[in-house]
Fold these 3 entries.
Entry 1:
Amino acid sequence: MWKNAAVKSLGWFAVASVVAGSLLPLSLRVHAQKNAGESLPVWAWPLLPPGTPAEPAAKPTGEVKHVPGSSASYTDKEIPGLFLVPDWFPNEHPKMPQVVAVGRAPGVNACGHCHLPTGMGRPENMSVAGLSKGYMIQQMADFRDGLRKSSEPRFGSTRAMIHTAQQATQEEVEAGVDYFASLKPVKWIRVVETNRVPLTKVGALMMVVADTKQTEPIGDRVLEVPEDLEQTELRNPHSGFVAYVPVGSLKKGKALTRTCVACHGKDLRGVGDVPSIAGRSPSQMTRQLIDFQTGARNGTHAAMMKPVVQNMTLSQMVAITGYLASLRP
């Protein structure tokens, strides 16, 4: 199985927690590969170590927010809400069905809150734009039936998906997957090979840059961070992510993925209900590979993946997911 380097803590700083599936800002500075005493890489599951106290989150003031190029406006109270999706560019996508735009309180969060109206999502969740209807319906059933969990039970986005899948009606599931299946994925992640990266910390279930003036060795990581944290927190679908990978990862990853084309297609953009893996979040893909290994993820599609990942090392995962993220989706 895989192993990672031990943690070197530079001090803890609060900035993110999960309450009822909602992401609230708190953060933790890390100079690390994983949390002390844990085997899961913190860059793939960005969480505070158990028992670490969180600083109180800043309270919304009602300030009106805008993003470049949009005439829309939302307050800082509305943007984090689970039942209202900030739709900054409504002309760039089809009309969202109710379950995507506002959900159904109290049990069904608006799908677009996490996955965004574009379906491209963020590192803590899955990019669902353009995935097949059959694949997404099966995944919702797996979440509902306990066949798809997380290797880290505290991970809020997976918990939220399980809860939503258990509460949603079949009609709501159908409406959501029809919408996301109709979308065309866009280039959302810029991949950079490097030996050193900006100093990072744990943010709201994603890694964020702590200090642009300080750097650290990348180690054996894919470090996926927002291009512009402020715009990411505003849920701006025009502001993507950069994924730093060790030098040589793309060449190594290309070689390692040659066998993936047998199921995922020659361009790795999926075949039928086998999903696209090109241009997707490397953090999310790493979590899924590990979840297949640990048995946290089961079901029809998992049965095909388990033999593939059984002996895969973390170093191989870094190269594979970094390369896949670099491709056109």
Entry 2:
Amino acid sequence: MGEKPTIRDVARRAGVAPSTVSRALSGTSYVAPETDERVRRAAAELAYPRPVRRPRGAQTVAALARFPSAWFFAEAVGGIERTLRAGGYHVLLHNVGDPAARAALPDERWGLAGLIVVASSFTPAEQARLEELAVPVAVVGGSWAGVPRVGIDDRAGAVAAVRHLVALGHREIALLAFDPDDFVGRATAEARRLGYLDALAEAGLEPNPDWVVATGHDAPAGARAVDRLLSGPRLPTALFAMSDEMALGALRTLRRAGIDVPGRVSVVGFDDQAVAEYADLTTIAQPAREQGERAAALLLESLAGVLDGVPDVDLPTRLVVRGTTGPPAV
């Protein structure tokens, strides 16, 4: 007996994305008639079983997030939960930042109505497992081909942060980056790294590899990054941190070392979480809760079978200038 056909087998035969197969067979959103017919023909030829829709009253949506207690994830999941609850759905939070949890990704036994992926990446094998659920999916941040997405332009946000520093006169700008070995968050880290490099190139500045320090995503990671910079031969005049948490850790270490901010070193974060205002932190603001709300609303449309197309929405970011940036010392 041959192997059981997968959703990717159907997608290959029909010449579409796996998410299109899911939408066509489950009837959760609009698919062009000719595409719908091609998918159904491929599924029939492969004897691929049509997904079984569960009663609405028993439906639950799983939210997959890396660091549920971190600011961005907590805000986004809060928006997701509020919107889905208003639509009559329960939310099950699954922490994919934990290796054991990643080994136990949702399967058909969970009885899910849908998935929302919050700023998390998956290996091809993991994504294939999730696609086999054949349920509607929406994404907050990150990307998933053929799936409704709401996020921000991380690259453009990083460009704005570094442009601000360049406009103040800085030419020696370091990047405090997320851990590149963290596969789950790689897409966000890479977009912000590219934005940093774009802004340097725009200003005619060469990046210094010693000033790109990747240590993690939180305040201790920011502190470790600054410790490393302090041990180097020359301290840059400005730091761009990929998160407010990293920026706050950097600020504490700089101040404990007696280094004036912004007199000697300027610092810019990314997020504009509530504590950023009280730390007087210059940062890039992003609407995390609204991203969750909008993605959940798209998922509700998909579950109701009224979603038109595959929306890809970028919400605006903005530079918030406070007291941690200023011109470099003469």
Entry 3:
Amino acid sequence: MKILIIGGSGTISTYVVRKCVEMKMDVTILNRGIHHVDLPKSVKIIIGDIKDKQAMMTLMKDNFYDSVIEFVAFTKEDVQRDIEVFKGKTRQYIFISSASAYHKPVEDYPMTEETPLKNPYWSYSQDKIECEEYLKTVIDMNITIVRPSHTYDNKMIMAVMTRWGYEYAHIQRLKDGLPIIIPGDGTSVWTITHAKDFANSFVYLIGNEAAYNDVFHITGEKLYTWDQLTQMMAQALGVKAHIIHIPTDFIIQMMPEMEGPLFGDKSWSVIFDNSKIKKISQEYTSNIGYEDVVMDVIKYYESQPEKQKISEEYEELYDLTIELYQKNLRS
């Protein structure tokens, strides 16, 4: 089976590439060549910018793929461009959406693929919903939509209160004995999925007619509280976690940038019904837990000084949020 993966070097797509090769698929990846990862030798690489529609149409002129898998489309314009580029060039277009698109506030458990899509808090999720709505109108291409939920690898810091790109601050705060904010009372349940487990099921959607014009989420079945994940990281570091629970609405009042990541995602309990993907996948797994990789995460950051970035602005606001919340409790 001949497939094209757009991206191929991210948290999820790296594992998907490896699994596809293991399944004897003919894999080509298309990306800008910016991020370098170890790829199996059989993988072909096309260097290009998927956002350049004319260049892509030229590149695809004499190519045909059984499946095109899009990991880096985030807006309706992105998927509209893809449909134009790959029309007549593939039997199946797989769009990676997000389980964060499911209805917020959460109204029912467990979440299924029939759970309504609505997220008034986070533009990322709103854009993914708009992508899905457009793709459901496409009539001349087989579309498969996949919704991952907080999928991680052996390099991802699992923290609820961070600024994108500055996640290392969570480790540094733990090392320095500084308080760690957990929204709410710390008991909300969060589903996380290792990318290797995700890939084990995902590959069975590729080129599978039973997956055409349908939607699937693929998540693990390991559940954690944010308190547990924070304690897990602290234990691996050999330190004590000083957790402070602060109501989510107070956090957002102080740190408006957290509205999307919290109200739109991580402040809710999320539990999924994976029955649908289990009927398709021949090897659904949920084997790897964060406890299995947390030491790898720490070693990765300790060996990568350039990744140890901290936003002083964000940390000052973080500390101010704690200070004012504690002051309000005393008054």
